[in-house]
Write a structure and sequence with these properties.
Blueprint lengths: L9 H21 L11 H8 L3 H13 L3 E4 L3 E4 L4 H24 L3 H20 L2 H19 L2 H9 L1 H12 L5 H7 L1 H8 L3 H29 L8
Antiparallel strand pairs: 1-2
Length: about 240
């Protein structure tokens, strides 16, 4: 099968198409459409995206480097399995990083920074009002990335970005829990208020508490999901 599209360089074409495929599959994974542990069929995505299986395979390899996909012996590609233990570890790491970022952002707060923070939080509240899960997840993560930006510590931000793909899956699954979209936005109200007030100690405490709470909820979701899937492997 020949991939659709035409550019002057075959190498550039293949890379561009693989990137497009990776974007499409990544979106399904991090928004929870393709659940942790679900099987990925190259032929299915090749047909859906109008691309060759080789291009899809290249995309899946790229996503494996991001920690989102893996090859299982005798069964092919699948979304990585996110266990309750993984959620606990991510929650602890997320709390430490986001707690420090919140403290630093609060201590460096200015009127200009407050306006940037308000803009990111307003975007999250609009997403919650609209009820679009994909936009809600993106806005949730964007607010936290804004806090890291305002913290002004490039090494701290680099550590956070290194686990961003796993965190996107984490947040997407947690936000699919029993909480209403407005509740998710409201969770951030105290955090944003503490940062705006320049109260670094309170901002750090709230960030850590929020990470623990969402981590506990996600552990419960994953434990229940594991029990449901015990009888067989789901497809993507």
């Amino acid at each position: 099968m020949r991939d659709k599209g035409s550019v002057s360089s075959l190498g550039v074409e293949r890379r561009s198409l693989a990137d497009r495929a990776a974007d499409a599959i990544r979106e399904r994974i991090v928004t929870g459409v393709c659940a942790p542990g679900s099987r990925i069929t190259e032929q299915q995505f090749a047909e859906e995206l109008g691309l060759s299986r080789g291009t899809i395979r290249t995309a899946l390899r790229e996503l494996s480097h991001e920690g989102l996909t893996e090859v299982r012996p005798y069964s092919g590609w699948s979304v990585v399995t996110l266990t309750a233990e993984d959620a606990a570890e991510l929650a602890a790491l997320r709390g430490a990083l986001e707690g420090l970022a919140a403290r630093l952002a609060a201590e460096a707060m200015t009127e200009e920074a407050a306006a940037v923070l308000d803009g990111a939080y307003d975007a999250l509240k609009r997403a919650a009002a609209d009820g679009d899960h994909k936009v809600l997840v993106a806005s949730d993560l964007a607010l936290h990335k804004t806090i890291f930006q305002l913290a002004g510590n490039s090494r701290l931000t680099a550590h956070y970005l290194s686990i961003e793909p796993a965190l996107r899956m984490y947040v997407a699954l947690a936000d699919r829990g029993d909480n209403a979209p407005q509740d998710i936005a409201d969770w951030h109200d105290g955090l944003v208020a503490a940062i705006r007030a320049g109260d670094g100690e309170r901002a750090e405490a709230i960030a850590k508490a929020n990470a623990r709470a969402t981590g506990a909820e996600l552990q419960a979701i994953l434990s229940a999901s594991a029990a449901r899937q015990a009888g067989g492997e789901a497809g993507c």
